[in-house]
Amino acid sequence: MTVVEAVRGDLTRQHADVLVNAANSSLLGGGGVDGALHAAAGPALLAACRRLRAEQLPDGLPVGEAVATEAGLLSARWVIHTVGPNRNAGQTDPAQLAACYTHSLDLAVRLGATSIAFPAIGAGVYGWDPATAAEVAVHAVRSHPTDGLELIRFVLFNDPLLAAFRTALEDTAQ
Question: Could you tell me which residue ranges the Macro domain spans (predicted)?
Fold first, then answer.
């Protein structure tokens, strides 16, 4: 059985096989979770992302898709990068947000990971409100196959997000 939990914390300090990056489509770093992961991982993460852009993703990573790289100095084996829909730019389809989670889970399973830590994708500068972001994320995770994953952790950086994710987890536990 897969444990699904929500904790308050710093994603860059999580011990998991996979840390999920709420990336921008360039994959070359940015603000928020993306910037924090790049800073903590050191230059290896940026180098891996530059290789992806040069070899596989010349136009960047599309919204909802996921791709993995090495984790650099992070306490993880891999970083899975996914691009959330930017609600502030008119990307309001919850299915795109759900795809960030399901495609990341699919990739983690293919990599052989047993644990994965997610941020609240889209709930920062991309404008998704905490309750909606949490409902979409939890529903996507709970309704998707997680073969081999023992732990799925949502790592939230503030109390309103933590409360929203805990409420969504409680609502789906019945």
Answer: 1-173
